[in-house]
């Protein structure tokens, strides 16, 4: 069967990655979490005290960064490796979440990440989620989805996810972080978060996971 490119963009914690993973599994496609790449770059900048407002320092640091997704046999998912180190748990921490949108707004960082994302999607048969995938990374994708959900529901979902790992986290902290990231992501100069003109909106506030998957599988059939 013909393989296509599927892009899923949207606000933070809309359930993009959950849907993208399930969709990729069902279709036998490759799933790429583009946000993990921005998170890994941010982690490197924090660890090496790189000033991301200094373009030269950013360019220099990017030359030392090697990113790779490697399949994890135990979880069945792809883990993000930064210079051969599995950074999967680290990049999900609040320390990274607090800075990632600032780092992702830097032109050189985006050029670096987008070039790699485009390479990964060359063969089609890919589901990639992020903020600029349908607008910038794969503007000719056959199926583009723009996800939204009620902000209160998004905060609740992310809080539950983070609380599992960190019992000190507060709902207020999570709410502030989501609002800040959405604001920076939507208002940055380079590739701001936007719905592509030809993207289909999926508001999943009231949909179960199986309902979303059924709906999107129908869209995939229509797009092939
Ligand atoms: O998807 P996730 O929430 O892990 O992404 C973390 C951050 O990475 C986002 O808040 C955004 O600042 C940035 N990002 C981006 N472009 C993408 C994916 C993520 O700017 N394609």
Automatic annotation (TrEMBL):
Residues 6-220 form the Cytidylate kinase domain. One of its GO terms (biological process) is pyrimidine nucleotide metabolic process. It is an enzyme of class 2 (transferase). It comes from the Bacteria. The keyword Nucleotide-binding applies. InterPro entries: Cytidylate_kin (IPR003136), Cytidylate_kinase_dom (IPR011994), P-loop_NTPase (IPR027417). It is found in: Cytoplasm. Its main location: cytoplasm. This is Cytidylate kinase. It comes from Chitinophaga barathri.
